[in-house]
């Protein structure tokens, strides 16, 4: 009896499947979800079905067959819960010729399901239609054509500087011109706080925790509260639950400098909607298009800080503000932070690549933390005194040093670029030569194929490196603007009494630590400070500035002294 009732229920049950995507906007209002429902309900009732169940996918392309409503409908059909499926036309099922064909020719017949396509005047109970495969093919061609047109349209818009993506958290579209972004001050203040905390040495996990503790809404929840529909999950029970991935993304977005960056991702084909990260050289960058939320120099400092990597703690878990800043003068590797096993109060750095650490560097480049702190603080004070007492001379020296640094960097990049371009031209000549040898019979086809493949691979790698170098040369001019920021930062720390992580981040790019050497019976160790944007800045010796001196008892019987003469540490 129960089986009979189930069968009876199935015979009067029809599934109505409706779908709408952005592509269908070209077809007018007849494709709207509501109109599809009305049309299909009327058609199903006319054919005797009284139990109608609707499955819907709104805003989903028919190219993909993995659609929530569609997948749920197929699951119910496989369980035998309906006898028929009604669609407005075959394109609603999908725009994938192979997959739709598998449905109509295998899945539906196998499960004894009637298919009715109203606009196509198709009813599987009335026999197969020879035109159905052709319609499915045309539906796929339509999707391909729309995708091609959209790509061309996006290419034109993207290369003209019009933003292709949505504005990031901190910006909104200009109500008077949707092609422009304007600062959303409420959200922008949170972005500025995130950058400020990062420069102060706070990690992304702790930043996320701080924002959550202060009950600041997450970006997605904030957008929804303002009536802006943006993709992303909203935790309504915990709308302030920030995570470190959100903070990391905010810290990486160059758009906060006022730039528009197009073609950051791409898809391989119109059938594969997965977005793939594009190579930097293939992106289109337009600078200073809208008002910045973060000054470019500050953004670059944050990138530099994050690229330096996470601070390596000592074995007891303690971290140092110098971690990531100290470099070995011989091998260029980072110096690692340690403490003495017998006397934990003794903290020091040495080369991570030293042989005792299974590396290749011949020397330890040992330097004590307490001495390092005192020396760097004294040098920064000396620099700030130079800036405050002799402002004109300081600005002239800083800008001149910055220009020298830029010119040296550009010269090195131009030299490398010239060498790469020369090799690229050589590969063209080599390819022509082996082609001629192949045609004349001097080179076998197999040998030609191997050699041409090798040359093509090398040329492909060269092409990528050449594009990156050209982009780096274009960007090097930004450093002159960053020099102005460095001058302002130095002036800000004129009265600093102790070191902070933010001070080091804003002023110092790296510190080269040389191995101590014995000269005329005295142990001498050199420290070379490279400041952001200006490099290793020398203060004119003729100026009457006090010479900082440091004398510290580092261990029993050994005193270490320091004078500013070439940043030398004397034992």
Tell me the layout of helices and strands.
Blueprint: H1 2-11, E1 13-20, H2 33-46, E2 51-58, H3 68-78, E3 84-87, H4 90-93, H5 97-110, E4 114-117, E5 122-123, H6 132-159, E6 171-174, E7 177-183, H7 185-199, H8 204-213, H9 219-225, H10 244-252, E8 260-262, E9 265-266, E10 276-277, E11 284-286, H11 296-307, E12 326-328, E13 335-339, E14 347-351, E15 367-368, H12 369-389, H13 391-440, H14 445-475, H15 478-492, H16 501-507, E16 508-513, E17 517-519, E18 522-531, E19 549-555, E20 558-563, E21 568-570
Helix pairs in contact: 8-10, 12-13, 12-15, 13-14, 13-15
Report what the structure shows.
By secondary structure, this protein is an alpha+beta fold. Among the domains are: 2-151, Resolvase, N-terminal catalytic domain (Rossmann fold, 3-Layer(aba) Sandwich); 161-307, Putative Large Serine Recombinase, Chain B, Domain 2 (Hect, E3 ligase catalytic domain fold, Alpha-Beta Complex); 393-484. The protein contains 16 helices and 21 strands. Strands 12, 16, 17, 18, 19, 20 and 21 form a seven-stranded mixed beta sheet that branches.
